[in-house]
Write a structure and sequence with these properties.
16 helices, alpha+beta, 7-stranded antiparallel β-sheet, 5-stranded antiparallel β-sheet
Length: 550
């Protein structure tokens, strides 16, 4: 009887086990079908193909597709240049104004010395080349050649100036006012209404420091006051011809077109901002202000000789930046203007002998599998893997190599015996070619500049954090929901080649279009205090951008 019961129990257990196994096999088939369907769905949807875990895993970061491309890289480089053309140089983004046209870059800095008059006042005003015009004058360009008359883009005053405001525009220089004479930047430029050198001013900057304070002020807590002024509309809201009271009134209107930053001159000659923002409480040894290319004509191609350069005998017509100084009489200041131009590059007929292998190795380093092209990228030679590589670099890169006149070539003199070592010679001026007709205006202010401009106004006069440019570009791109969604999914690693500062990258990921505003609102961050100085650029800007900056 007992044996029969045991047999029945065993049978029931085996039946139950078989049922469980059958159910498991059924579930396995269902899971298999689900996995197949999921895979097919992911294969048809690139955004969902990679799971969040894999996207942020260490193995996948090296192969992650960067969200920002060449266009954004050029835009960041350009914006860094607009903010500080003394430290950086880059062309205008090719997709915005110049197309795939190789260009050369030229920078010129001019020094001058304003001096406070008997009233204890001094004035400086500067206009960018060709950006603005006013009804009183059709002239606003001043880039010239040696054959052109003296020109100017800056007016300043010294001790004998009797005015009580900025000098009036487009008038013969009054007593005590002087012009900063523009110099010939390159002997290669030509002046002709039909085929003169084509150019665009990329950036314009005005800087000022105290040169000499009267001895009596050395022990004083402060020795004067400075007002840094920027107008967004030089025609309707001009700096020229206005006193500081009127400009202050305009600056305090709603939707003001005039921006003013006020500073105290300390007894040691430094400048302290007058502002409630504690991030701007530090002193600086000099003040800077840059022109902002907000007008539709700012980046229109100009031609030397098409109009007469603005004469150095007159006050400037359309200044958009200026400095008003109130300091003890005879106080001397050292000021400077910095211009950055891009000009169209043209071919020439010069033939250059190949460099010796020893010279190539010592100067450029050996690159296995590449061919040295002596006429290559930037005008100073370059390695290329195939014919298409060099062309792509010229079209898609910043094209910011040295100006041809500044390049040293290694040339074998004609008639030299075989095996003669190439000797270095200075680059001759290229053969001038007839230039095509001036292009139609193509300029529209970039969205990234619109993101950055309000914050540039807030820190006007101070050195600007190098992270503002890349963060403004990312914030502008994030106006597209698709971009921001991918940035949030992939994380900061997706923009590491353009923005490598961890704090700013985190702000970009978390705030998207409002990233710049979020950075300014962050109590631990300021556009002047946290990373101010060029030594922090490499900690902020990624390698893709650094490769385009000169």
């Amino acid at each position: 009887m007992s044996t029969s019961n045991d047999t029945k129990k065993t049978q029931r257990k085996e039946a139950k086990k078989a049922a469980v196994e059958a159910q498991l096999k059924k579930e396995e088939r269902r899971v298999g079908r689900l996995r197949k369907a999921t895979k097919e769905a992911r294969d048809s949807n690139n955004f969902e193909r990679v799971t969040a875990r894999k996207a942020h895993g260490p193995k996948s970061l090296s192969g992650m597709v960067q969200l920002l491309g060449t266009k954004e890289t050029q835009e960041i480089s350009w914006l860094e240049t607009v903010v500080n053309p003394e430290a950086f140089a880059a062309r205008i983004p090719i997709t915005q104004v110049t197309g795939a046209v190789p260009v050369d870059l030229y920078r010129k800095t001019l020094f001058f010395y304003p001096q406070a008059n008997a009233n204890g006042e001094a004035y400086i005003m500067a206009m960018p080349d060709g950006w603005h015009t006013i009804a009183a004058s059709s002239q606003s360009t001043y880039l010239r050649t040696a054959a052109d008359p003296a020109s100017t883009g800056t007016t300043f005053t010294f001790s004998t100036y009797a005015g009580i405001g900025f000098p009036a525009p487009v008038v013969v220089l009054p007593t005590g006012a002087s012009a900063v004479a523009e110099e010939v930047i390159s002997p290669e430029f030509t002046s002709n209404a039909a085929d003169g050198t084509e150019y665009i001013m990329v950036a314009n900057q005005l800087s000022m420091a105290v040169s000499n304070l009267p001895a009596a002020t050395a022990d004083q807590r402060w020795a004067g006051r400075v007002f840094v002024v920027r107008t967004l509309d030089p025609e309707r809201y001009p700096i020229a011809g206005q006193n500081i009271g009127t400009l202050m009134d305009w600056a305090h209107e709603q939707d003001a077109q005039v921006v003013i930053a006020e500073y105290l001159i300390e007894g040691d000659g430094s400048f302290r901002p007058i502002a409630a923002d504690p991030s701007r409480s530090q002193t600086v040894t000099e003040l800077t202000v840059t022109s902002l290319p907000l007008s539709k004509d700012a980046y229109k191609w100009q031609r030397i000789g098409e109009t007469v350069p603005y004469p150095a005998t007159h006050t400037v017509a359309a200044p958009d930046i200026g400095i008003f100084i109130r300091a003890p009489a005879s106080c001397i200041f050292q000021a400077r203007v910095t211009h950055l131009y891009q000009t169209e590059r043209y071919p020439n007929n010069r033939v250059v002998a190949p460099m010796s292998s020893g010279s190539i190795s010592s100067v450029h380093g050996a690159r296995p599998g590449y061919t040295w092209d002596p006429s290559g990228f930037g005008g100073d030679g370059g390695w290329r893997k195939n014919p298409g590589r060099l062309l792509q670099q010229q079209l898609m890169s910043a094209n910011v190599g040295p100006a041809p006149s500044m390049v040293t070539r290694h040339v074998v003199p004609a008639g030299s015996p075989s095996g003669t070592t190439p000797i270095p010679v200075h680059e001759p001026a290229p053969v001038t070619r007839a230039k095509r007709a001036t292009r139609e205006p193509e300029t529209v202010p970039l969205g990234s500049l619109s993101k950055a401009a309000p914050h540039l106004h807030k820190v006007m006069g101070m050195p600007v954090h190098p992270g503002l440019a890349p963060l403004a570009v990312v914030a502008d791109q994030a106006e597209s929901p698709g971009f921001w969604n991918q940035l949030a999914s992939q994380g900061a690693a997706a923009i590491k080649d353009h923005l490598c500062n961890p704090k700013l990258a985190k702000l970009a990921v978390e705030n998207g279009p409002a990233a710049v505003d979020a950075a300014s609102a962050d109590s631990g961050f300021s556009w002047t205090g946290m990373l101010s100085g060029l030594w922090d650029v490499i900690k902020t800007v990624g390698p893709a951008v650094l490769g385009m900056l000169v």
